[in-house]
Amino acid sequence: MNTFVTTSCTGHGHPEVTITFVEPPIVPHGERLLLGYLENAVAKGTRFEPGQTLGLGGHLLRFKQRADGTLGLEEPVPAPKETWIEAVDRTVREVTFQRWVNESFDLELAFPPVRASVMVSRCSEDADAVVLTRVDAGDTAKSWSGWSLSCTQDHDHGERFTLPLLALSALRPTLVPFLALPMGSVVVATSGPAHVFLDGKELSPKPGSYLQVLNERASKRRSSPPGA
Prior knowledge:
By secondary structure, this protein is an alpha+beta fold.
């Protein structure tokens, strides 16, 4: 376990907050992003209590009372029955990847609402290649992210059902980095490079960017002979 603690909250009459990573943060000193946010919020008068939730980039965290007198942060685990653990690994990892994908195209972040859902076609459940499409969710924006998932085949995609984005994180984790792309985005995800379109135009990731590097690796894997 890797634990980090705020240092300025007690100066504002507020308990310090402990954040826990099961694994080291994916970015060196990446914990500072969350610690700084909490310290700034407390300095401006925000008060956090055990049981209170915190939305972070479309993700949900929950405060808990720790035995050492500080507040801890829990995140939900992708599972059939909702379970919370005192850790922030998945939340910080997914928010970081989403930021990197958007930076690959110089796009502003458009995080989905906390606990929103994705509309899933049955045909996409076992498909190797899928299409992720985002539209304006309109009046349903609080419950639906605007994202829909289908296979790449040109056919009637049939019955659709809603799936929490948290569940998508478990079933298709490779799609999660794209979930902060703006309305009008389409992502074609295959075993090779991912293709991103915005308003009907394919976007090219910047040289050296996160997605450009990922796509290069995917292309090499696909072109390598078996067992290479």
